[in-house]
């Protein structure tokens, strides 16, 4: 069965072409007992399973395809600290206590990613030179300055950049200034996911691939989770399906809108061209509402990503725009060999924040990373593991909120297209 959002044009990538061997994750073919069952094998689910297994909790993870099949195996691999909103706003919105925890959790999320990579020896081309946010106009330069100041007040290694500095670090003259956040970096996203799966299995988690959850029924002492060939009788369930959330619980799926993001990548560049692009090993994205994100991979391929579309024709058109944009940013690319193109779905929420829900007692979910989940979904997994192993809500590093569905959900696709057109206008100002 194909997930509703999937399109064949999206799944074969630079990352799948350069992936490490997958860990053995056979389909579930028996009836198991488990304290916790995690649904979804991306960063959120695997980090939850790993952290639970580290605590000695018995945990089973069920993935519909294979670990890293979803956004976690397809993204730009940019490890970016923080949430979409800046720290002062988060503390204002969530209060000094919870707000501060959220800022700390999201700011330190890259530390968690790179420490898991170190601890478990995950081979994923990790580099930690920092993330550059490049400002597309004068107002965005000011926003970057304020953002840098707010994080600096909290001790983060981040700095505003003027035009000359950003030109030098990017190897491109396309921007007006920006910031460098040295907490960030880059990974091979699929190999990071596969490494998390191996680590979780090594710690005792049972991880099953090709095991789509088809039903979830409450029992007196927990839940019965069914796949086509087996079942798990479990105390708690953690839903970690983000933009690929199925209709298992009704409301959860309607709390976010899956939006397509696509990428294109060149073949490895010649040594001299490669040295002129992001020469110090940074990863970068810009400040536009319809932003582009770009980087080199460890073999010197140039990758650029941005907004996708819902139909195959629209997706191809967006990919062509990205190729043109890449050559505007870096004319030295000439007419490169565009080797791969792919994409996936990000889960957009109304307030642009990720959410941690307890849909009913023992049925927990973490989702809505709004295109910024390499670090944050890994961190959310740790919080979900705390919640599933009994930490009181008041002691968690992220608030537990009720599920709020998006009104007029059936209009989500035209609404995303209208919003994108509006953002394109705003970006031109
Ligand atoms: C093209 C693209 C580029 C991106 N670039 C970046 C970036 O550079 N930096 C960044 O921070 N973030 C980026 N993101 C966002 C980031 O990839 C996501 O936020 C993150 O991967 C979400 O992880 P997840 O584990 O929550 O979800 P996913 O990785 O999507 O995993 C969900 C899993 O649930 C499974 N599933 C669904 N239904 C069922 C079921 N019924 N039973 C069992 N399993 C099920 C799916 O098969 C899937 O594998 C990007 C996303 C995309 C799509």
What would you say this structure looks like, in words?
The structure is a single chain. With 429 residues, this protein is an alpha/beta fold. The protein has twelve helices and 18 strands. The strands form three sheets. Strands 1, 2, 8, 9, 10, 11, 17 and 18 form an eight-stranded mixed β-sheet that branches. The protein has an eight-stranded mixed β-sheet with strand order 5-6-4-13-14-15-12-16, sandwiched between helices. A two-stranded antiparallel sheet has the order 3-7. The N and C termini lie far apart (44 Å). The mean pLDDT is 93. Flavin-adenine dinucleotide binds at residues 39-45, 62-65, 69-72, 74-78, 80, 212-213, 240-244, 246, 261, 263, 293, 305, 343-346, 367, 369, 371-375, 377.
Top keywords for this entry?
single chain, 429 residues, alpha/beta, FAD/NAD(P)-binding domain, D-Amino Acid Oxidase, Chain A, domain 2, 2 domains, eight-stranded mixed β-sheet, 18 strands, binds flavin-adenine dinucleotide, EC 1.-.-.-, oxidoreductase activity, FAD-dep_OxRdtase, FAD/NAD-bd_sf
Helices and strands, with pairings:
Blueprint: H1 14-17, E1 31-39, H2 43-54, E2 59-62, E3 78-79, H3 87-94, H4 96-107, H5 109-119, E4 131-135, H6 138-152, E5 158-161, H7 163-170, E6 177-181, E7 185-186, H8 189-202, E8 206-208, E9 215-219, E10 222-226, E11 231-239, E12 257-266, H9 271-276, E13 283-286, E14 293-296, E15 302-307, H10 312-329, E16 338-348, E17 355-360, E18 363-367, H11 374-388, H12 412-428
Parallel strand pairs: 1-2, 1-11, 2-8, 4-13, 11-18
Antiparallel strand pairs: 3-7, 4-6, 5-6, 9-10, 10-11, 12-15, 12-16, 13-14, 14-15, 17-18
Helix pairs in contact: 2-8, 2-11, 3-4, 5-11
The chain binds flavin-adenine dinucleotide.
């Amino acid at each position: 069965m194909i997930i509703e959002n999937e399109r064949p044009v999206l799944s074969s990538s630079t990352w799948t072409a350069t992936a490490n061997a997958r860990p053995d994750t056979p389909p579930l073919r028996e009836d198991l007992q488990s304290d916790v069952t995690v649904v979804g094998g991306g960063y959120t689910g695997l980090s939850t399973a790993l952290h639970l297994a580290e605590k000695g909790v018995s945990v089973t993870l069920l993935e519909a395809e294979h670990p890293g099949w979803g956004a976690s195996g397809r993204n730009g691999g940019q490890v970016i600290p923080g949430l979409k909103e800046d720290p002062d706003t988060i503390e204002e919105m969530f209060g000094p206590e919870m707000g501060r925890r959220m800022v700390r959790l999201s700011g330190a999320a890259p530390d968690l990613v790179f420490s898991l990579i170190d601890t478990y020896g995950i081979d994923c081309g990790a580099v930690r030179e920092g993330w550059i946010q490049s400002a597309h106009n004068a107002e965005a330069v000011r926003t970057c300055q304020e953002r840098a100041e707010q994080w600096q007040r909290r001790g983060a290694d981040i700095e505003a950049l003027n035009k000359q500095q950003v030109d030098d670090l990017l190897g491109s003259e396309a921007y007006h200034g920006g910031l460098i956040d040295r907490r960030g970096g880059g990974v091979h996203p699929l190999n990071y996911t596969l490494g998390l799966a191996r680590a979780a299995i090594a710690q005792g988690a049972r991880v099953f691939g090709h095991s789509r959850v088809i039903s979830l029924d409450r029992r007196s002492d927990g839940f019965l989770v069914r796949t086509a060939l087996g079942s798990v009788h479990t105390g708690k369930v953690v839903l970690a399906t983000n933009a690929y959330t199925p209709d298992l619980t009704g409301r959860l799926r309607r709390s976010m809108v899956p939006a397509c993001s696509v990428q294109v990548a060149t073949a490895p560049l010649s040594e001299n061209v490669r040295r002129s692009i992001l020469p110090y090993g940074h990863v970068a994205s810009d400040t536009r509402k319809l932003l582009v994100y770009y980087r080199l991979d460890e073999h010197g391929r140039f990758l650029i990503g941005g907004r996708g579309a819902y139909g195959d024709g629209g997706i191809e058109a967006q990919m062509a725009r990205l190729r043109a944009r890449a050559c505007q940013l870096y004319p030295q690319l000439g007419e490169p060999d565009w080797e791969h193109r792919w994409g996936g779905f990000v889960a957009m929420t109304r307030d642009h924040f990720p959410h941690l829900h307890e849909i009913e007692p023992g049925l927990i979910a973490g989702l809505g990373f709004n295109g910024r989940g390499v670090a944050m979904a890994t961190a959310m997994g740790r919080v979900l593991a705390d919640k599933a192993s009994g930490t009181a809500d008041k002691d968690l590093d992220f608030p537990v909120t009720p599920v709020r569905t998006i009104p007029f959900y059936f209009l989500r696709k035209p609404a995303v297209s209208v919003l994108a057109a509006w953002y394109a206008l705003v970006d031109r100002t």
